[in-house]
Design a protein that fits this description.
The protein has a single domain (about 5-210), classed as Metallo-beta-lactamase, Chain A (4-Layer Sandwich), CATH 3.60.15. The chain is built from seven helices and 14 strands. It has helices at about 40-45, 60, 65-70, 90, 170-175, 200-205, 205-210, and strands at about 5-10, 15-20, 25-30, 50-55, 75-80, 110, 120, 125-130, 140-145, 145-150, 155, 155-160, 185-190, 195. The chain has a six-stranded mixed beta sheet, with helices on one face. Helix 6 (about 200-205) packs across helix 7. The longest helix is centred in the C-terminal third of the chain and has 10 residues, at about 170-175.
């Protein structure tokens, strides 16, 4: 059964948070609860959320984490390279963007992710891929032909690499070695902007077409 996927563009950065529900089990997971999460919280009020999965720990992806955690009681999953970012405003960037938010401090995540790991959550089998470059601990999550990739790959663009811990060469390796190995029909749900597919990015993304030459 295909997951039910709802998108919420949150806060000044218009960061995509995703609610992914399994209609068969009645359970759901949340990806990247961003800043100003009121719309997301309203949608979660009657959902059985069993996990909060973080693609990475920049402020715009974790700004609503405390609220979503309090509402749902769900455990949090993050790559160990960014575990400390949850508790440190300097690392998660909220100290830098103080004009947009108060310092963000969250409790540590209950679970740490590993490349190649398989999670069984909400009746879904979720494949974890470590896809660094935008940030050191960036991860992408694959459920069937749905990939939740954070700020790695966008529709006809890629994630920025000028923030602390970012690296352009590493990002391109992640895209080439991990994301482009997915089936062409895989739908990519990015951290910002519209969804796309691997096939569309191979055809029209100037950063990706360069890798295919």
């Amino acid at each position: 059964m295909e997951p039910i996927i709802k998108t919420f563009a949150l806060g000044a950065f218009q960061t995509n948070a995703y609610l992914v529900k399994n209609q068969a089990t009645g359970e759901a997971v949340v990806f990247d609860p961003g800043m100003e999460p009121d719309e997301l919280l309203a949608a979660l009020a009657h959902e059985n959320v069993v996990a909060i999965l973080l693609t990475h720990a920049h402020l715009d992806h974790i700004g609503g984490l405390n609220d979503v955690r309090k509402l749902t009681g769900a455990p949090v999953y993050i790559h160990p390279l960014e575990q400390s970012w949850l508790t440190d405003p300097e690392l998660n960037g909220s100290a830098r963007w103080s004009n947009m938010t108060a310092p963000i401090r969250c409790e540590r995540a209950e679970h740490e992710l590993a490349d190649g790991q398989t999670l069984e959550l909400a009746g879904f089998t979720i494949q974890v891929m470590h896809t660094p470059g935008h940030s050191p601990g960036s991860c992408s999550f694959v459920i069937g032909q749905h990939c939740f990739g954070g700020d790695v790959l966008f529709a006809q663009s890629i994630g920025r690499t000028d923030l602390p811990g970012g690296n352009y060469e590493t990002l391109m390796e992640s895209i080439q070695d991990k994301l482009l190995e997915l089936d062409d029909a895989t739908i990519v749900y990015p951290g910002h902007g519209p969804k796309t597919t691997i096939e569309m990015e191979k055809m029209y993304n100037p950063f990706v077409t360069g890798l295919l030459r």
